[in-house]
Batch of 2 targets.
Target 1
Amino acid sequence: MDVRVFQRKQTKRETACNINNGGCSHLCLLRPNGVSCACPTGILLKSDKLTCRRRPLQSLLIADRENVRQMSLDMPYMVDVVLPMPYHQIVVALDADSITGDIYLADNAEHVIRRCAFDGSNSRTIISAAINTVEGIALDTTGRKMYWTDLKRQSVEVSELDGSNRRVLFTDLHKPRGIVTHYPSGKLFWADWGLPGIEVSDMDGNGRKLFVTSDIAWPNGLAVDWTKRELFWTDAKTNSIQAIGIDGRNRRTVIRDAPHPYGVTLLGSYIYWTDWETKSVNRTRKTGTNYNTTIRGGLPAVMDIKASPGPPVVKNECGSDNGKCSHLCLRNPEGISCACPTGLIVKDNRHCVDQPMNYVIFAGLRTIGRISLDTEPLWDVPLDVPHIHHPAIVDYYRKEDLLFFTDLKFDSIRVVSLKNLSHPWTLLSDGLNTPDGLAVDWIAGNLYWNDAGRKVIEVAKVDGSCRKIIVSTDLVEPRAIAVFPEEGFLFWTDWGNKSKIERSFLDGTGRKILFDHEIGWPNGLTIDYDMKRIYWNDALKDTIKSSDLDGENEVLLVPKVVHPFGLTLLGDYIYWTDWEQMTIERANKLSGSNRQVIRSHIEGIMEVKAVSSAGQTGWNVCADRNGGCTHLCLYHPQGVRCACPDRPDSRRCSDRPVIKVSPTGSPHHAMFSTTMASAKKGPRGDPPGLIPLLVALVVVAILAVASMVAVVVWWKYKEKTKMVEGPNGGALTYTNPTYSASNSDVNTDRKPFTWRRLHHDANHQGRMFDEKGEVAALISEGSSVEHESPPPTPPTRTDSVT
């Protein structure tokens, strides 16, 4: 026990430490003849005996699952401290920047790579998407690059130190583990349990070959001795630490009978390693001895280990101008090479294109990603769109290079420019309940969406103005939506009590049910604009089908699809997402053959949309000065339909064109052609006389009759049109037979639902979602159909470190 004495009347005495902390930068300690300055554990005083160094001169960084420990090697004693970082769950791999002291670490529970200062402060996430189970991190301190292995994605990637310009180097690995670079030779080494063995390549990804394949079983950590040009590795199966020259010669065993070695690092004359079985950090001389020292025990979750400072910084071959590369400048044995981020093509050996020509965009948990179809491999690259939670639906507007998307966390439609991903903005949110589908009419510049909560289909300009409901009856749970602007068609799927696929004109009129039999949960919907066919997938029937635009000539294209959701088409292929498999797949659009999984392990995968530089073509009258409309131009095969927003704005609105436009092409094309043809006739053209006069009279008569007919038609139409006064003058309303603003079927008070998680069982056709931890059956309002109790949500899979 202990005893302390408290004396209330004890007088306070001034000491040397009370004045400017005794001149000390950290701790001021009293002594009989003055004061002495002291530093935090493991930190040395500078030569002035007053100021502490910023960090240890030499130290070890130890990944201990939930913590990162720092063990100073500057002191006569060895003790570690836990760096004050944000909470981590499974820290497996780490490395340190020899120049800045910054620490890079992977958290495999959060699926991120973070960077923080040497003291644990200023932590920030630099990789948060398209990443799963990082087993090794290697910093190229000289070239300012970061390399890492991903066990689940079976890959090796490289990026800048801030996580930008990501490039995948290899995608066909088995079970990759540790990774290390050697800048002077331009070599990259990594271990793979699946071979088992160690591979080597140039640091730019070229020259890949097997390096060690014999007498090796479970290779884990790797380290390179830059002085001796030796590669060291741990092998948990053979219970050893071995070394070999980076030229592949002079292999030797450094440590035998190590119970379960994992991480390994080098500093000075010593080799340090972690051991899973003994739960310890150990060291011995690099030359190999029988005398091994345990310098820290009692670490039940010890993982990786790295020495600081790491390898020396040498001359950067990329120089101060990044090797004249527009993006990545990577080391190789002969010098450097310029490389592009994954999916981009290099134009002139130094500069990369800004975007792929053909690609698909997908939405998933915490990410909007892109898969370029221009290059191999077909690999997902996250787009750095901030402030997203779980994007669900996406569509693209090529003219303005805009990406529209919805997010399951927010009942809103958002948009971001693909030229500036850092500044997304909310386009529409007022009155939205559950926006499920998005479709851009790129000719008229309109955006269509359905709202499953309010049971409506709406349209607005792509800038969010002129919002109008065009379908509000006989909708139960509208899901996917697609437009064919040149034909004037709108298609959508409905998950109602009797699921169906419908078609209408772009103004919501002319509705036609295409399918309402042999259809279960129609999720994805897309259009082949060249062959004029629609495609849809069915998450209950587990199929992908196709038909013409009238619902005829139906074809079963792909059977046995586990749980399809999004669907799109580009070139010869259809692409779809699968919830259960967490994949993006494709198949031939005509036969369903050549089925291929192009990406897997995409958590929370939702919608997918194809983008092509040659896409979104075609013409209709809305392309010419908005079809002459003041607000919305909704193309109809029988002519333009002008429409007014449900909420009038400050402009006077008309439900008919206010200026004349050509119905067949360029508005001035016919007049221009006639004028030019006449101008080309010289004085020896058609002889003057009676024929030209008769032609002129006929033309005048036709124009007069046409004018009279136009007046009569206008007068009759005027009688049927109601004038409604807006805030700044009259506004003509657009009469839509399928919509009335007072329609009682539109229930705006309905509680919104989302697809937090959707499952189905072959023996149970009830739909369900997981909202705030509760599983509830989605039963349509007013339905008398009895549903069975939904099955429980499957347990979440957890991936353990192997």
Target 2
Amino acid sequence: MSNDSQVSVKGEAVIMPSPSGSASSQEPPLSPSTTSKPPELPDELVQAGWSKCWSRRENRPYYFNRFTNQSLWEVPVLGQHDVISDPLGLNAAPAEGGDSNGQRKRRISEEQGAGPNSIKRLKVEPTTPISPSTPGVKPWSSAPEEKPALPATPTTPSPAPAVYRPAVIYWDLDAQTNAVIREHPPANHLPPHPEMELLRAQLVTKLRQHYHELCHQREGIDPPRESFNRWLLERKVIDKGHDPLLPSDCEPVISPSMFREIMNDIPIRLSRIKYKEEARKLLFKYAEAAKKMIDSRNASPESRKVVKWNAEDTMSWLRRDHSASKEDYMDRLEHLRQQCGPHLTAVAKDSVEGICSKIYQLSAEYSRRMRQTHLSLLQDPPTEASASPQQSRLVYCYPVRLALPSPPLPRVELHFENDVACLRFRGEMVKVNRGHFSKLELLYRYSCIDDPRFEKFLSRVWCLLKRYQVMFGSGANEGTGLQGALPVPVFEALIRQFGVSFECFASPLNCYFKQFGSAFPDVDGFFGSRGPFLSFCPVSGSFEANPPFCEELMDVMVTHFEGLLEKSSEPLSFIVFVPEWRDPVTPALTRMEASRFLRHQLNVPAFEHEYRSGSQHICKRDEMYYRAVHGTAVIFLQNDAGFAKWAPTPERLAELMAAYRPSPARPSALSSPGPAPITPGDKDSAPKAADRTQSAVTSPGGHDDNNNSNSNDSTATTNNNNNNNNNSSSTSSTSSSSSSSSTSPQEKMAAV
């Protein structure tokens, strides 16, 4: 049956006059393109993708499912035959007085051609998921001209092969959302294209190399590990430019995050100390580097005198005293940093600001170049459209839709190596395990509306994987903190006890629900993303927020949450998982603990809970979970209606804490991928935050003093930067109050 005979709308939502009252009193949502005519199907069928259509040829109504491409003459019944999980209908319950599937077949006139010329009217609709993982089925082809010709005469259908089923599933794509938003127009992002992602990957790699060279040439240091990834994240919080990854329109130009982290490694990067000899060597290196730096820079006579005198005094003490303990060396290092730190910062300030400014200017130039190239690939370049007024209609949240049609996409090759799907475009290969590849297929089927035949599926998956690969970086385990996630039992408890149905910070690779907020709406929208959560304004619903551990992002997140809770009188709840950093405490945690919307706070101790790895879409099964080496603060922010509906009662909190306990049957690494904890014996190996002197530095851009002190705290312990991405590999792996005094903010911020 041709699609042009489908008259009624196939929407995800039904109009809802007001989301107030109980969930059962809410009418189901319509998609933005629908009319306000009353629904002709039960709410459950509309949510499952069914809509009532009209056949011009048969002059009668029929029912079409936009998720599965099924067409039925009779009203479908939920649960009888799900072609995704049961392609052959073997588990379908037989209907009374009907055939085995409980659904009447189409008329024979639809299944057979009327003659040799019937090929012009015949259209084959898939009734099983088109999966390249099934034997006998050709993988999706990105080139429309390579589609096989349709047979002129009907043939006997062969049994449909079973869909690939992952051994372990880390998601629940059947959970329906309770997030209600105001309808909004399609987004003006440029549609993704493999050529553009390839160009973006080359330019971002080039920008990373420039950053490395500038740090070496100007300051003689390696760039702080993960600092470029944190710079991308911190810039995108305030960026107003067009590129989805590279910042191009930010104010201030100089990034406070990048400035802090480079300053923390001047004159040398200080590492975690365990033994006396290491402490002695580190003290000598710091004194030597400080003296060399002050001699080679244009410093004032007073600064030069103070630094040189303290450095020489330290070297003399090291030559005289060979019986000092590790604690003596560390105390001497703290004293040296207090005396020399402000003077070294003053002479390096202009140089470090130059590094930050140069990287931003290159990023803006690359962004402009990519946009020009991208526009040339589009058949219909976008025009400047006036901002449409805010829609007043309330609907359930729906995936990001792009205003511009997608151009023809080039072919992407797919093959499987054991349980890994490999996608190749122009020699560039990206990989994802077969289970997550199957998940992307389902998300695409649920969310994409412009590609029912999956002709662009492989190209869009390649763009998605390449985008996240570029954002992560090329280092071993680098950037995986961007993708960490809560364990499955915790999500199950959140659903049962608090009605959670939406993740504020996720991606198609690590999401648990099919509705989530993510960083890249242009590529993630085809797989269910509702866009960046800081641009997402729900009126009601229950949400889980596990943000990347970037202080600037967490601070803006709290502002956004409080604004939403202030405006809405409907039930609205945010359950926030953040690191419990206490020495010094972060502004976001302080603000949430003082918020008038705070209803309860849980503190989960270190080593007593787990997280899923940030590289879960490619890692081995026995590396999926790891023990958190730091504590986690779980904060409940709710308005009055949300508190009445999802109150954190002792019974509910007890089940949540029970779900957080690691399963003894599940393998998990105690300290992988996070850094090894500091034992009480090594606590003195890092200078205390209260004694650090970098707080005297004024960070450019007017960054607040709390964040400055956080960065300064990291100077003596920041060489955990080598493990930064590990500390962040769960976006909720955090520092407990018992261990936060020995944890540097650079470890803390490792999780972009």
